[in-house]
């Protein structure tokens, strides 16, 4: 009865700005914004040297595109959230379903319109990212129900497309150089493993509601080994490319970061369900540091 009263009160009290901000989930914006910064740096642009480009790109990848994906996800998960997180804006009634849908559509359109101001290829990357956002959460595709496709769509959007967006902004909206595109692709593929790390915390709940994450499909141990392999192989390829492109210092730094991750993985694999959050803090930090090291090499800041 107490929960029912709370929901009714929320439904009649109306929406506030904070409810809509909660739907945008600002805490999730960091990964694509970091990848965007890597893209800018790889294209020879630093935040201090081109403040407007930096701010415009951060606004696009964080609050707009990533924010839109979060609204879409909350709208499409409203029935599940009514059971698991009834206090969220939509299931509590503070934001109605129709308003949430309108917000998702409007925010997606705003993101796409903003991207046109930054160049054709930025707009193309934004459009693809928004398509992935809707495909990830919304029927009939609802890619999130399968860990193979869902994790890949998020990894490509959060890492690869954000990196390409930054690099395209750095060159005036044109298509970035092929070496930058290749590096963005490799780090996107590696991020598939990072996405899998987030699935260890709710294996039982995912089984109950029919979400086929990789830990659900393969079991915790096999999924953890796969995640580690998926994270490592692209970075090893990046190391080889840096060597072949004559960036010895960057290659050495990336190799050191890979070694650090391997040591952390050895501990993580002892108990994946318990240690996934720990590895997120230790191993993933080294992964994203390697991204910036590589970006600095491509941008001519680390030779």
Give a brief outline of the structure.
The chain is an all-alpha fold and 303 residues long. The chain has 15 helices and no strands.
How would you explain this protein's 3D organization?
The protein is mainly α and 303 residues long. It has 15 helices and no strands.
CATH T-level topology of the largest domain: Tetracycline Repressor, domain 2
The percentage helix is over 70%
Q: Do you know the CATH architecture of the largest domain?
A: Orthogonal Bundle
Structure class: mainly alpha
Strand content: under 5%
The figure for the number of domains is: 2
How would you sum up the global shape? globular
Amino- and carboxy-terminal Cα gap: 65 Å
**DSSP E strands, number:** 0
Q: Low-confidence parts, pLDDT < 50 over ≥5 residues? A: 1-12
Average of per-residue pLDDT values:
92
CATH superfamily of the largest domain: UbiA prenyltransferase
What is the CATH first-level class name of the largest domain? Answer: Mainly Alpha
What distinguishing features does this structure have?
303 residues; mainly alpha; Tetracycline Repressor, domain 2; 78% helix; 0% strand; globular; disordered N terminus
Topology readout:
Blueprint (H helix, E strand, L loop, with lengths): L1 H12 L3 H8 L5 H13 L8 H26 L1 H7 L4 H4 L4 H20 L3 H18 L9 H24 L7 H20 L5 H7 L4 H5 L1 H25 L3 H21 L3 H27 L5
Helix pairs in contact: 3-4, 3-9, 3-15, 4-7, 4-8, 4-9, 7-8, 8-9, 9-10, 10-13, 10-15, 13-14, 13-15, 14-15
């Amino acid at each position: 009865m107490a929960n029912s009263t709370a929901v009714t009160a929320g439904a009649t009290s109306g929406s506030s700005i904070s409810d809509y901000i909660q739907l945008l989930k600002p805490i999730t914006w960091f990964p694509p914004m970091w990848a965007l910064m890597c893209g800018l740096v790889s294209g020879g642009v630093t935040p201090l040297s081109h403040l407007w480009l930096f701010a415009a790109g951060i606004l696009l990848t964080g609050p707009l595109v990533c924010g839109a994906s979060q609204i879409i996800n909350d709208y499409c998960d409203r029935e599940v959230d009514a059971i698991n997180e009834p206090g969220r804006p939509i299931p509590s009634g503070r934001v109605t379903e129709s308003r949430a849908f309108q917000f998702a559509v409007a925010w997606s359109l705003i993101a796409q319109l903003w991207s046109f101001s930054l160049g054709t290829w930025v707009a193309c990357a934004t459009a693809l990212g928004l398509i992935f956002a809707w495909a990830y959460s919304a029927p009939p595709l609802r890619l999130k129900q399968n860990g193979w496709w869902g994790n890949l769509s998020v990894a490509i959007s959060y890492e690869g497309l954000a990196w390409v967006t930054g690099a395209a902004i750095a060159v005036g909206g044109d298509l970035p150089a092929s070496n930058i595109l290749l590096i963005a692709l490799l780090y996107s593929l590696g991020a598939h493993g990072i996405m899998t790390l987030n699935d260890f915390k709710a294996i039982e709940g995912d089984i109950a509601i029919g979400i086929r994450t990789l830990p659900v499909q393969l079991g915790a141990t096999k999924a953890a080994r796969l995640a580690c392999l998926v994270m490592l192989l692209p970075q090893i390829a990046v190391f080889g490319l840096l060597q072949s492109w004559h960036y010895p210092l960057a290659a050495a730094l990336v190799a050191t970061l890979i070694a650090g991750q391997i040591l952390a993985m050895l501990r993580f694999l002892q108990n994946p369900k318990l240690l996934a959050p720990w590895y997120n803090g230790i191993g993933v930090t080294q992964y994203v540091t390697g991204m910036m090291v590589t970006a600095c090499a491509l941008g001519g800041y680390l030779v």
